[in-house]
Specification:
single chain; alpha/beta; Rossmann fold; 2 domains; 6-stranded mixed beta sheet; about 35% helix; about 20% strand
Length: about 375
Amino acid sequence: MLAEADLSKPEKKWPLDLVRCEDCSLVQITETVPPESLFSDYAYFSSFSDTMVAHAKTVAMRLIEERELDQNSLAIEVASNDGYLLQWYHQAGIPVLGIEPAKNIAEVAIRDRGVDTISEFFGSEIATRLAGEGKQADVIHANNVLAHVADLNGVVAGFATLLKEHGRVIVEAPYLGALIDHAEFDTIYHEHLCYFSLTALTQLFAKHGLEIVNVEQLAIHGGSLRIFAAHAGTAKVETAVNDLLAEEAGWVFDESHHVQFARRVETLRKSLVECLSTLKNEGKRIVVYGASAKGSTLLNYFGIGRDLIDYVVDRSTVKQGRYTPGTHLAIHAPERLVVDQPDYCLLLTWNFSEEIMKQQQLYRERGGKFIIPIPEVHVA
């Protein structure tokens, strides 16, 4: 996000090209932006999303019960953000440790939620240090972070070092299969270096003595994988793992499958731009909900800017008063929708559409409509 003073300055830009490894199936972008530029002072706070907080509580309560955790256990989260997940372990009396590189967010976790948090980038070095201090974990969470790291091997090696003999690593990441099936191209941005299939994750974890023993497909974020990993040979591998690997064998190495995805994105671009242009020519006022990274990808790649959009609203107070990168749209609080009552709101955080439209019921009752762009353009 840009401050007003930044609008007259040149913006840094990086290529956004997507490639696939023919050997291991890993899909990734070709350019790595220095992580210090992206994460040291971060604008995304997980707790601004009610959906994310509820999602975190559910998985934490489940793991407490299944793993029989108590005051002698330890729950660690890598990229723990503002304590949105670890707070539930903490409230249950289970010791926790968050590892969060963004100092501004780590401070919120400590101050507001009592979650012990260290502000560092996670890797094998910090894992070795913590293990040497006796801080090995019964559960290690890594939600929506594995896609962000350049040193994948260092991070997964760190998991293996920190995990107790019979512990579990629980990783959630956007699923490549859902991205392709639903044309979720906006999930591709510079924070997301990699786009995982179970096939690729299985090979990655095996290199470090970890075995994926269960997998679940989740609807959150447009389609995610939740994997459960253990030290190899210490737990039974559930049938869900082999079933999904068999399913992926039919497409994960198929080049035509990936090419078709690119064609669908181009069709989507034409459809959305035509929709917005028609509405604008009819005199309709259009704004955006969601000053998200995925929204920046969509707006900039589709060439949608101030000629079509008046402004952006976002629930995050950290983003309000700032401007979107590339398109320079002003960001306001969502309450402006009811005050201003624009005709249409392009919902770029479509992965939280149910939550957002419920919050904006008054705007809708007064005639406001949401345009949801993915997987196909439709009005709600």
